[in-house]
## 1
Amino acid sequence: MSLDTPKFSDLDALYDVENAKVATEMYEDPTLFQEEMERIFKKTWVWVAHESEFPDKGSFKLSQVGLDPVIVVRDRKGKIHCMVNRCRHRAATVCEVKKGKTSSFQCPYHGWGYGLDGSLRAVPYPEQYGDDFDKSQHGMLKLRTESHEGMVFATFNEDAEPLVDFLGPEVCRYMTLFMKQGGGFPVKVLGEHQFSVPMNWKVQLENTTDAYHFPIVHKSFMQTLDEKTEDLFAFMEKNEGWVEDLGNGHSIMMMMPEREDLDACLDDPIEPRFEWLAEEIRKEGYSEEQVKKIVLAVGGPGFNMNLFPNVSFSLSFFRVLTPVAVDKTEIRHMALGMDGGPAIANRTRLRLHEHFQGPMGFGSPDDAEVWERVQRGTRGGEELPILVNRGIVDEEPGVMGPRGHVSSETGMRAAYQMWKRMMDKEA
Amino acid sequence: MTEMTKLDPKALLADVTEFLWLEADMLDRKAYGDWLDLWLTEGLYILPIGDGEDYENQLNLCYDDDKMRRNRIDRFNRGFSISSAPAADTVRTVSRIVIDSAEGDLIKLRAAEHLIEDKFGRQRIWAADLQYTLRVTGDGFKIERKIAKLLNSDGMLNSFSYLF
Ligand code: FES
Ligand SMILES: [Fe+2]
């Protein structure tokens, strides 16, 4: 690296707001990555779970906040806790079961026992610690935890603003609209696809509100759709959608504005691709209104919303990113269904999810390929910028921030501005 | 072949081994047209996630009926999918074949598969437990069901531009 290349202390060189240019180091510099983990992932709200993943008292799941492995758990009163998966004695992980139910966590090494709230309850043979050993000072390291619309977030930062303020009113409104794909039932995580990609986490952060890549990267997926469905995905040609900066790095890509609010679509005729499904659900005795609602829910809403820094709501699934190293990121695609809804509707959702998502989907592998290509490409031409200026020319003011063409890079600009704000030491 | 299945377990093992090796060779050579011909129309090709066996009602990596199988192969072949143009090269071995049952024209068996992929100058290694339900037909064995359970199916994977 030559001496005159920008260092991360020079934030303006890393992200040039006015010209919407991102420096190559943003994907390549391991020191910068460490700084991001400190200044972003240790400071802001990070998504850790959906409530349906650990529905009962005592149920838990393992998750991650930046590089820190955490346990998310519901105590006996139903309160949610999140703590670092590390024993306070000599650091062993206290739990290696990905998901389950328990009444306490016991460290396997010397048997220290912790309650569901992370407090230290029992120490075998405590005498050698003396009389002034204070258990209350040796609980597991806790994170602040708050939920909205069933989405659980945690933060190491005691001073972070309340979750709903971080999300902001528009994100909260769209979250409510997104969850209408429960079709009148609670939204439930049905399973997840997991794959790791040799790329910087921000390559993924850019992608969820990037409509520009869709007709190119996902052409082979489109080719397997019937004409009507293909038409639904032809949002680039129709040009009715938009991308909008929702504040704090969040953004929305409205691809099918006619599907913004599923409840407003109840008078629409049932899509031909789902007529057979409607018939099956009718047979189960659901009212015509419920049938319509459920079938619409199966199709999902018409937008992707990206939340800074690690989760997005993508048509009909959650996409979660976990940074691992400067050039390695883990991706989870969580399939959603209707808790208590007709089995045939959930089956259909599962098959739709498998069709596009995951290591063997008709979409994700192509996404993973181009993301890796970005990481490979940035090994050369270090002085060249990465351009996220598309659509800046005809942006208009939206509710919270600029709104641009459906294929504009407004969402990326939103994310990078937040990135810059958080990385600024002075702030 | 039909008679053999009833008569001689050793001969049956040799026959299914030959069949599995031919299939493995087709998949490594990406001779997908030939591979599709190995299937019964009602056949299901499944890569499950985790230990659940209610494949229809759970999330899988793939759950392919005839139509999805053909679409998948089409996607590999047409050259519009960047991840399969070119796809990773693979070399696989199928072994540890155990015949669970052979009754009438129905054979159930298990096998191990080791696969190494190569792309972008890096190699990755995968292991899968295979479960087959084969039918003996006048046209040789046909696959009624193939379940390929990756060793870390519920763990962190990479995307696949080939079949197991
Ligand atoms: S490391 Fe946990 S009890 Fe010793
Ligand atoms: Fe994509």
## 2
Amino acid sequence: MRQIAYQRAGSVDEAVQAAAQPEAAFLAGGTSLVDLMKLEVLNPARVVDVTRLDLSRIEPRADGIRLGATATNSAVAAHPEVKRRFPALSQALLSGASPQLRNVATVAGNLMQRTRCAYYRDLATRCNKRSPGAGCDAIEGWTRMHAILGGSEQCIALHPSDMCVALAALEATIHVRGQRGERDIPFGDFHLLPGDHPEREFALEPGELVTWVFVPATAAAARSRYVKVRDRISYAFALASCATALEVANGRIRVARMALGGVGTKPWRSLEAERMLVGATPRAETFRRAADVALRDARPRRDNAFKVELAKRTMIRALTLSAEGA
Amino acid sequence: MNDNHSDDGLGRREFLVGGAVIVVAACAGSQARREGTGPSAPGEPIEIMLLVNGERRALRVDPRTTLLDLLRENLGLTGTKKGCDMGQCGACTVLADGVRIDSCLALAAQYDGRSITTIEGLIKDGTLHPAQEAFLQEDAFQCGYCTPGQILSCIGFLHEGGGATEMEIREGMSGNICRCGAYPNIVSAVRSLRGRA
Ligand SMILES: Cc1cc2nc3c(=O)[nH]c(=O)nc-3n(C[C@H](O)[C@H](O)[C@H](O)COP(=O)(O)OP(=O)(O)OC[C@H]3O[C@@H](n4cnc5c(N)ncnc54)[C@H](O)[C@@H]3O)c2cc1C
Ligand code: FES
Ligand code: FES
């Protein structure tokens, strides 16, 4: 690890100011950042500890819930209002990492966790995300754990988060604060596609601090589900996952929201598949057609063609569970 | 955090290693809560104070120091193991204010003012902690390398109010990998504590 300066922010203003210094990074649970600092993949000169800011509250409201940026993944997953009104969020969080990691990992840290692409994590290989313009050894390499949706010729790194898949389907909003004030970012705009600039990962200005995430409450959200398929039953990243939220009235789907994990360069939502579901009867054939549409643009590489069918089946399973509960 | 663990069969005092210590730590923690530290230069050592197994330890450390390295290298407490050093095995599990964490991905500086419990802190007046007894009783280890982490994780799990079925225990203990595969006996050890009246 390179040398760093450590600074603990005493207030949100102080954190935003400290982050304006060159080569500064916010530090929350450290489970993504410290790991990557040890590997010298991320090399901030200064870390600004945000864990003691007054941002850890989980606040239920009539129209949704506000999750403080530093609320831990464990605290959010266990919160009775999250379990009751946003079950997919609790399920997604509990399916991620390990209890020890979830006890320190935070909402904002999870949003901004980096890819687990083995090439990104290995300084001996070429990676456009790590060193822009260097080339990508993944594309022609071992691709079993890489994205089949949203990739570019520069990068096919997979987005690893479970929580983000649930938040994408639940249409959350991310509230941030920077030197120029506060703003809201719709969830779908927060993570960027790699395109020609895989090193640009988030729609944040330098130094902007995530302060909270708002999740709107809906009838569909209250019956949402998260299904995750992985190599072992626990403590593993998703091969494919899916968050779904359906509202069914008079035997027809009235509202449909869904997002896929383990397949995209960002948490993957298919608006087209959602539109297809609306008005249809919730049954296997409907779900299969929607899944075909969601995966239509999939571009598998050498080792991950299996993900196409796996993702479809995962999606059908999640939709079936949501429909049963709806 | 679920603070209700009265149904784990063991009193709070036994599980929250040295109840008094945790109370003191909680106060120290809340004092330090909102307090910031000023900017420093990269590499400049920083002063921190930790309550380790109930003892106040004032230290001057390189800001890069992880909590795991601080325990092992600076304090000589080598009971906490370094398996992977990347959050993937749980050998480095300790309790921070009673909550289980992986110490390898934590910067020591972040735990300034807080209370840390390691395997060395479990024994009280020559008596093993009930979790240590249970691991011995159930023969819940082979080489023993993962064991300190397993025991601290088990205490954290019970404190979180974790369930008692085999699946719940396996899932709750899934953050601790055992290369020797002692899992069946680890599950038995955890269950024996869960079921104790
Ligand atoms: C072994 C292992 C297994 C894992 N398995 C899974 C899994 O199965 N599923 C899954 O979803 N995740 C998994 N994870 C990832 C884990 O969920 C993330 O590491 C964690 O959520 C990151 O949160 P943190 O608070 O520790 O972030 P940190 O590491 O502290 O920070 C991560 C990033 O967020 C930035 N940041 C933090 N807070 C803010 C803020 N308030 N505003 C702006 N930027 C901020 C930091 O600068 C940094 O860039 C795993 C991790 C490990 C190590
Ligand atoms: S040494 Fe910390 S998890 Fe492996
Ligand atoms: S007893 Fe050997 S690693 Fe668990």
